[in-house]
C-alpha cells in the first residue's frame, strides 16, 4: 500500500518546516537551491496496524538481545574452558569461546537492528532544512532547538510506545553485565601464588641440562649450574609458569670468599643457590664472571655480586637476588631447606 492509495483526508498532516528559498538556476545564480523533494509517507505513517507490527518487531529484537545476554552469562558459568566442539567449516574450536562470541554478537546485533528498524519505520523521516546562522545562537534559535528536540522525542514514540521503551531499557540494562563477566576471562586472582614457588623443604635440586639430581661433587668451583625443583617436567601443563619462578643458578665458591654471613649459613660447602630471575624485569640471568663472582643480566646489564648476598652493584635492578637455603639429604643429594623468603623476579607485589 502506498500513500497514493489512501484518501487525502486520512494522511498525516504535513508540518511546516524551513526548507529555504527555492530558486531556479540561471547564469547569474548557477548554484540555486532546488529545495527538498516531496515527502512520501511510509506504510507505518498511514496504517496503525503496520505501526504496531513494526513496534512488535523492535520489541522482539530487544527481547532477543536480553535473552542472548542471559545466554552469554549462562555459557560463561556452565561451559568448561577446556571443552571443544567441531564447527564446519572452521574445525575444532573452544566451545566456551564459540558460545560467548555467538551470544554476545547476537545481543549487540539485536540492539542495533532494533534501533535501526525503530528509526526507519516509526520515527519521523521528514527532512528538515535550516538556514545557516551565526555561531552565537540567539535566544529564539535556542528555543527552536529545544522545541525541535521535544518534537523529535514526541515523534519517536518513546513515551507512547511503552513496549519498545521497556524492552529497550531491559536490553541496555542487561548488556553491561556481559562486560562484567568478561573480566573473569582475565584468569583467576593470583592471591599469594606470586609469593611462593615449587621449592620446599626436602625438594631436590635437579640439573636443567641432564635432568638428574645434583650432588655437591657435581658442582665445581667457579662453575655455573642451572637447576629446577625435582618433579617439575617440561611436559607439565604449568611448566612455564613454575619455572619462571623456580629457576635456580648454583655456583660453588671458596667459603672464605663469601662475604655475607647469611649467604654462608644458607650455603653448603661453599655451594650457593640464587634465583635466576633478574629483579629488574624478570629476564633470565646467564652470564657469570668467575674471577669477580659477578653475574650479569643480558637484558639491561644489571650486575649482582654472588659473593656478597647477590646484591646489586650496577644497573637498574632494585634489589638483590633471593637466595635459596640448601643442604644435603640422607642420600647425599642437594636439597632445598624451604622456599625463597621473598618473591623472586621484579617483586613489585610485596612493596604495597
UniProtKB/TrEMBL annotation:
Residues 240-335 form the Rieske domain. Its main location: membrane. InterPro entries: QcrA_N, Rieske_2Fe-2S, Rieske_2Fe-2S_sf, Rieske_Fe-S_prot. Residues 1-40 are annotated as: Disordered. It is a multi-pass membrane protein. The keyword Transmembrane applies. CDD domains: Rieske. Residues 14-30 have a biased composition (Basic and acidic residues). The chain crosses the membrane at residues 57-78, 98-119, 168-187. It comes from the Bacteria. Keywords: 2Fe-2S, Cell membrane, Disulfide bond, Electron transport, Iron, Iron-sulfur, Membrane, Metal-binding, Oxidoreductase, Respiratory chain, Transmembrane, Transmembrane helix, Transport. It is found in: Cell membrane. Gene3D superfamilies: Rieske [2Fe-2S] iron-sulphur domain. PANTHER family: CYTOCHROME B-C1 COMPLEX SUBUNIT RIESKE, MITOCHONDRIAL (PTHR10134). Iron-sulfur subunit of the cytochrome bc1 complex, an essential component of the respiratory electron transport chain required for ATP synthesis. The bc1 complex catalyzes the oxidation of menaquinol and the reduction of cytochrome c in the respiratory chain. The bc1 complex operates through a Q-cycle mechanism that couples electron transfer to generation of the proton gradient that drives ATP synthesis. Belongs to the Rieske iron-sulfur protein family. This is Cytochrome bc1 complex Rieske iron-sulfur subunit.
